[in-house]
Amino acid sequence: MWGCFSRSLGDTINGGTSYMTTDAPAVVNEVVIREEECKGCKRCIDACPPRVLEVASHFNKMSYHPAQYKGEGCTGCAICFYTCPEPGAITVIRRRA
Ligand code: SF4
Ligand code: SF4
C-alpha cells in the first residue's frame, strides 16, 4: 500500500494498491523537495524526527539554500509536509510492501 502527501494533489492521502509477492523489490519511503519552491526556512529540517533532511550547499534561483533529502531513512511521517509554509515544496511518498 502506498500514499502520497502533496499539496499539488490537494492535501489528500491517496490510497493505492496492496499486493503480496515473494520476490518484491525493497520499497522505501521518499520525500521530494522542489527546491525552487523552498525558501530555506529550515522548519522541515528541525521538525524531521529521524533527521534525514539537511541544508543544501548550493543556492536555488531565489538565492536560498534549499532543504534536501539525505537519501535514506525517511519514515513517511509527513511532519515535514505539515510544517512547511510553502505550498508545493514538499511531497512525501509512502510505500509499504
Ligand atoms: S516524512 Fe517524516 S521522516 Fe520523512 S523527511 Fe519528512 S519529517 Fe522526515
Ligand atoms: S519547510 Fe519548506 S520552505 Fe522551509 S526549508 Fe523546508 S522545504 Fe524549504
What's the CATH class label? Alpha Beta
Structural class: alpha+beta
Question: Which strand-content bin applies to the residues?
Answer: 15-25%
Backbone CA Rg: 14 Å
Quaternary class:
single chain
Count the strands? 6
SSE run: EEEHEEHE
Q: Can you tell me about this structure?
A:
The chain has two helices and six strands. The protein has 97 residues and is α+β, with helices and mostly antiparallel strands. The chain has a single domain, classed as Alpha-Beta Plaits, CATH 3.30.70.20. 19% of the residues are buried. The protein binds iron/sulfur cluster (2 copies). Residues 33, 38-44, 66-67, 83-84, 86, 89-90 line the site of one iron/sulfur cluster.
Secondary structure layout:
Layout: E1 2-6, E2 12-13, E3 30-33, H1 43-47, E4 53-55, E5 67-69, H2 79-83, E6 90-95
Antiparallel strand pairs: 1-2, 1-6, 3-6, 4-5
Bound molecules: iron/sulfur cluster (2 copies).
